Amino acid sequence: MLSALLAGCSDNTAQAQRKIQGIVYCAEANPVSFNPQVTTTGSTIDIIANQLYNTLISIDPLTAEFRPELATGWEISEDGKQITFTLRKDVTFHTTDYFTPTRTMTADDVVFSFNRLFDVYNPFHFVGDANYPYFQSVGMDQLIRQIVKVDDYTVRFELFSSESSFLSNIATDFAVILSQEYAMQLVAQERKQDFDALPVGTGPYKYKGFLRDNLIRYHKHPGYWKHDLAMDQLVYDITTNNTSRIAKMLTKECDITAHPSATQLETLAARKDIRVDKAVNLNVGYWAFNTEKPPFDNVLVRKALAHSIDFQKIMKAVFYGNGIQARSILPPSSWAFQTQAMPSYDPERAREFLTQAGYPDGFEMDLWAMPVSRIYNPNARKMAELIQSDLREIGIRATIVEYEWNTFLERVGRHEHDSVLLGWAADTPDPDNFFSPLLSCTATFSGKNPANWCNPEFDLLLTQALDTSDLQQRKQFYQQAQQMLIAELPVVPIAHGMRFQASNTSVMGIELRPFGGISLANARKN
Amino acid sequence: MFADFLFRRLSLLLFMLFALTAFTFALNYLFPGDLLTNFSGELSTNFSQTQILQQKYHIDDGLLVQYQAFLLRLFQGDWGLSLSSGQEVFGHVKQLFPATIELCVYALIVALCLGIPAGVIASAYHNKWPDKVISSLTLLGFSIPVFWLALLLIMIFCLSFGWFPMSGRIGLLYEIPPVTNFILLDIWLHDFPYGGQAFADALHHLTLPTVVLAMYPTTVLVRFTRDSMLTVLEQNYIKTARAKGLNRRQLILDHALRNALLPVIKQIGLQFSTLITLAMVTEVIFSWPGIGRWMIESIYQRDYPAIQGGLLAVSFFVIFANMLADVIHTLLDPLARNQAHGKV
Question: How far apart are CA A224 and CA A201, in angstroms?
Fold first, then answer.
């Protein structure tokens, strides 16, 4: 049989001269969905957003200016309530095993994509869990009056009021353009539930297959409107174990590896064929308390907890010098950042606060730690252990709780926790991105607010900041918001991490963004 | 006479299958959580869906009716949905099990090719240096834990020398549509433009897991062949043959080997259950996409329908493999047939 096999192969030697082309990216988790509209999970966005889809506009990572993508231009009316986008012509959707497009992208697709998010009459609005965490938490569903098709290549967004972060939100990885024609085909076939699992987009790669816990395969999208750089294939090797991911990098089974941990950076950097990229990233790792549950509804208890932890020790043992200690919930590179008087490590004071709150002997609590390594918290388990031992000093007995990542997020969304170590990586450079999706009242309802904190005063500050486009004024509102957070402490900001990426030196053009995910649209291998 | 034997074996098989399915059925009740979810794998939230499921699984009827329905579903291939992937358990099993069997088959082939000759050599040179070398190597291979060996090989051959890849069945860029799910066969069946490269790559990926998995059965076969040969070589007919002036080669190959291999064949069948267990460990370490890795993953995620399905499939397979080895052994060895009847 072996000789037969080899004989069969030799016929193809001429073709086999050319080596198979493609990039293998070792990812840290299964994607939750294949549609960025329905999730904010960073690991999922990294895998799907920039590879499969395009947005109307994007933000330049260096200048933070808006760049045209599927929209070639945009106009904002005097009162800021009408934004008109002119669309690019000849943008083709993916031709896949399950869908063959008959037309190029038009205004219908844009209207459909956004209507799905905001219009309850859209046939897809309630498909899946009918939850659009990003747009709901930033309150976009309350903002948009309607989306109008002016002609085939012009779309107008009509807002109830002008909002300064509107364009930033349209430029996030979540505001992707989907094919209306594909959606209608699914309606006709009564397979609406497949919409988020079998994607059709306009990006440089198209979906080919997904084998849970194993791999995701994308093929090149021929006729991609922007350029012809894409490789024949882009394959995601799902390797949840940190060490295995690094080992695969060393054996050259991966071309790119997501989130190598800080301890492994030296080993990687010592190799000539591996490049380690560091990127400043707008993010924050924090410890959130479930402020609806006693005793965490008491600000004195929250203060006691915040004063009990040794930030220096965490920075050393978890970040290995590759992060900065937080001075506010906003990272220092954000334009609205202002240093805050953060609670310092002071067990004595912590005990005093506890006594004042009526818990001189402490209490028992849960401390949820993320099971995966993220930029804002490379090792939540270790951080949890450090915090646990610090808490023991002031008489609080903490139990560390861990679940599989997607289950973990789901349960935190249902506010089952006492306190949780989580974080946030920004999707836009707009400071609102740190406040509204995390700490606003609407975020509480959409399950994104891990502190379960709803404070009308705070929400008012955010609304005021969004209502004005005067930068100085916005800055002031955001600074008040930051002060309020430190006074109330629904979350204790801990650190801002750096984003790391290891890649083979033969791979070029990987775009690590300071906000949002990673883009492999321009990546190629020599 | 053989038909009689076969009938007895088949009834034993039926009884074992009954016990196995009854146990799996009971698991639905023993696992924590909602009974309907354990059965179907659907996290049903709304009332009408729950009602449909209750009807389908005959929850309100007696246990016997439920068990009957359970058996019927098993035969129809409706093994419920996996909680973590939301896809059919039977689909997963169909897709993943061949990868495990493939690994076991290759390991067994390696074990046969190495173990039997090594055993014969050891017995031929009984108590001389080849015997001593083979015996000590066997002891070493027998005692080394499989996960330790795997990690050791990965450290030396993958990470230090970079000779072999450390995970998967084939480079991920080669897209081989699964037909038989035996990777080498699939590459051959599918006229792939990079066929040659893919084939080499698959062999490359196969090497270390196969070596690791083959270690244990090889050592067992060496010992068995050696002992069995030694027993046969002591027999009178061999002494007679020797007295007639046959040389050692003729003695061993023409007269002793055939008889010595009979107990070894039985042993191969018995090895299958050990082999499957070891394959699970090997799969986890080498990220081999087989049923073992999937089951262990399911246990971590408390995916009860998947655990049940995996358990059922693996047990079915082990029982069948044992039975088959038994039947073949009996076909080749008339004495064993009589023993099975208890009338020697």
Answer: 11
